[in-house]
Specification:
The protein is of the alpha/beta class. It is built from four helices and twelve strands, in the order H-E-E-E-E-E-E-E-E-E-H-E-E-H-H-E.
Amino acid sequence: MRERQSSLQAGTHLLVNITTRQLHHYQGERLVQAYPVAVGKPSTPTPTGNYQVVSKLINPGGALGTRWLGLNIPGGNYGIHGTNNPDSIGKAISNGCIRMYNHHIESLFPHVQIGTPAVIVAGPGTSEKQAPKNGKNGHSYTVQPGDTMWEIARRHGIPLETLIQANPHLNPDEIYPGQVISIPI
């Protein structure tokens, strides 16, 4: 229990972008590592939403590879796991689970505890080219699970309209974790 609490207090969370087919491991606002993944095929898509890790298995075997992180996604048995088919990574090919190279899931596994948030989104990725350049005119902020534009504006002490105007590239009703937004001064 103490290990789970320290993981959650430190802000460990996972962000999976099914469009870019990447899993991001965050510690607070700091990106620890990004990994390529395989996601669900169109007929069995990976469900988007806010979930948590509810189970962990070592060597589940077969198509699940060397590690399994079960998620509390309703209506099925979904998880983040290794694979016995490394050529599938980077493709939309699974039955809805998120596949990783075995050596990647083995690296991630010890840092993820039961209760770790896992947010699955579909949308454009955040890259250096897309990140706001602020310099002396403000700073950037990485959207976290559960954030809204209103909450971010309140937290930074600026009017919502000012925050929206500073980020014309965003739809304020559809922000998602991992996006980088400009915080004006």
